[in-house]
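My main concern about presentation is that the manuscript never shows what a single data entry looks like. For the editor and my fellow referees, an illustration may be useful. For illustration, here is how one protein appears when written out as sequence plus structure tokens:

***
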Amino acid sequence: MTKLTLRSLGGAGTVTGSKHLLELGGRRVLVDCGLFQGLKALREQNWAPLPIDPASIDVVILTHAHLDHCGYLPKLVREGFRGDIVCSAATADLAEIIMMDSAKIQESDADFANRHGFSKHKPALPLYGKHDAEKAIDRLKPIGFDVPTDLGHGLQLTLRYAGHIIGAAIAEVRWGGKTIVFSGDLGRYGDPITPDPAAVARADYLLVESTYGDRRHEAVAPGEALQAIIERTTARGGTVVIPAFAVGRAQELLYHLSQLKAAGRLPLTPVYLDSPMAIDASDLLCRHGGDHKLDADTCRKSCAVATYTRDVEDSKRLSANRMPKVIISASGMATGGRVLHHLKAYGPDARNTILFSGYQAAGTRGQALIGGAREVKIHGQWIPIRAEVANLPMLSAHADVDEILRWLSGFERPPTRTFIVHGEAGGPIGLKARIEQDLGWSCTISAQDEAYVLS
């Protein structure tokens, strides 16, 4: 008898590197294909060969366009994958931006390391380049939401809105007579921009994320908290540097800042968006109006609240400018990108604030700083951190434990088995306890590379 199996090649025991493999009758389907981030032991897995041949994968289903879900695709294609990458239209547009930006950063970081001699590898090489990203982009196949789509080999896919970021989807896969639902990353209920996570009625098997599986978000208005931090920083002559995910978080920050300025509450504080990828993603927000809650006018005003800096020289001038201001720059966990140069420039001065606005994975500079680190290593140098370090966890794009339970309660009957993925530390354990206590469902915390028989 042919068996349907599930195996997590990433995103199990960690919040990065999401890759979930379904196998049936010699066919393989990969749900998400992300980069590992954070701890060195995780990042090194990006360089290791996949435990399966990429050429043996028939199709990739992409739930959304964050780097930890799509960032490995260029390497997958370079190493032999030749199938379709199926996703929503907004995700296809965002994935193109993110993969090209990731390739550019990989090449730039390798070049920087070689020129300054701080890499252990001689020469330092990028994980992949822009040519690899272009080949992955060519394989993107957008489909609509809420429409069952035949992917061949008896496989049917329906995408449901997940919230989280524009284009993010819950993937409902029907294969081998079973329905397997992948939550992807679930968004927040009542978010001002993204839709609420769509209810799903039934699943034989379910994979659910657990990023905040042991935590509740603070019931604090994000705009109020943001205003307070900016006002106290600028009052002492400082700059607020916000490491932000270029897709999702940057746009939400622009929205809250535009609302504050419209209300006359931050009239004189200039705002800069220093991330070409975030600028492109902000433009896409207005082009995909059907995938979010903002009307066209509000969307335009949100995007117009910041001065955009695409040019590298303009970014350098921002780092040198000591006038009070707000700089939003990627990456969100301070693992790379232009924000590192701003941290080097502004971190040593106690007048400034480094403001985080979402989950910080283990091993990232963001986690270290929130944990109280007073120096971080950037570009081979130890940088002292005397600036105030603050966090706005209520701005997270991930559902907290109560919101995850709210979504799970929408199922008409319990899945045969629920797998808990995309979490670290207490997240999966806390969510498992809540699901078993509140819903009485059978739960398994997925282990990396372990195969589970579904039928």
User: Anything to note?
Assistant: The chain has a mean pLDDT of 94. Residues 89-116 form the longest helix (28 residues). The chain has two domains: 5-215+397-453, 222-395.
